[in-house]
Amino acid sequence: MTGRIQLRHQDGIAFVTLSHPGKLNAMSRAMWRDLKAVFEKLQAGDARCVVVQGEGGNFCAGGDIAEYPEFRFSEASLRNFHEHGVWGGLQAMLNCDVPLVAQIDGVCMGAGLEIAACCDVRVAGTSARFGAPIAKLGFPMAPREAQLLLRTAGELTARELLLQAVVLDAATMAQRGFLNSAVADSQVASTALLSAQRITGLAPQAARQNKQTLRALNQPKAADTALPDAYRYAASAEHQEGINAFLNKRQPVF
Asked: Which of 17, 63, 125, 151 has the fewest CB atoms within 10 Å, measured from its CB?
């Protein structure tokens, strides 16, 4: 099973659920394509708010590493994965004029952190954990994704997550401004729903126009300068060692 993105509607709210049973909702390539399609549909629809959540008590553990040997060690296929697959899904979220609320339970790593970063309101449970420990896998974050993290989490946090591969708790992420609130685990769903209900009670056209204005005022272009050389590490020894070590359940030797 490659996982899927579920969509349902209730009382003007769209619920987008990341679902990959047995893998803590890790994002597969198929899920990235589905994410793009779902948010393009939402952009064209009449939902007043979207709640993004994970299935089974976790938000998203990152990417589906079991797929990585199929495409990551070729520069062309690696570039295509990040620039079209991953960024296609994230850009569809960023382009969506409907307000987005992230309901973050459990693990929020890598791809999950990026998906949460695309949301307008972020609510997490106190036991939620955040990180992007891809340095342990022998590769860096793609430029557009790193710029998204830098913009939403701040430079100090982005550097800590990427350079030290630390995992931060919800209280720390709230204190640093990435989360709107960190609440008891039992209250995450109700708090996210309350935020969504507040939004649906307000003028939907004004919400869409506010998102358009904020997006126009915060258009980043700096990542473009890093793109020409961004994926040349594809066939590198440490890239292959990091991923193969993870899949073989051993410590990598860099």
From this structure: 151
Q: How far apart are the first and last CA of the chain?
A: 32
Sort strands 100-104 and 13-19 into parallel, antiparallel or unpaired: unpaired
Which of 43, 57, 49 is CA-nearest to residue 15? Answer: 49
Locate the DSSP E strands across 136-231: 167-169, 181-183
Is residue 221 situated within a structural domain?
no
Q: Check pLDDT > 70 for residue 101.
A: yes
164 C-beta neighbours (distance < 10 Å), count: 11
Determine, yes or no, domain membership for 109. yes
- The average confidence (pLDDT) of the chain is 94
CATH code where residue 193 lies: 3.90.226.10
Residue 62 located in a structural domain: yes
pLDDT at residue 228 is higher than 80: no
The whole-number pLDDT of residue 230 equals: 80
pTM of full prediction above 0.85? yes
- CA distance to 101, 122, 249, per residue, from 189 (Å): 11, 11, 34
Q: Nearest CA to 141 among 165, 123, 120?
A: 165
For 156, the token pair is 């100090």
* Selection from 196, 213, 61 nearest residue 123 by Cα: 196
pLDDT at 227 exceeding the cut of 80: no
Inside any domain, residue 117: yes
Q: Is the pLDDT of residue 56 over 70?
A: yes
Q: Which domain holds residue 11?
A: 4-200
**Domain tally, the chain:** 1
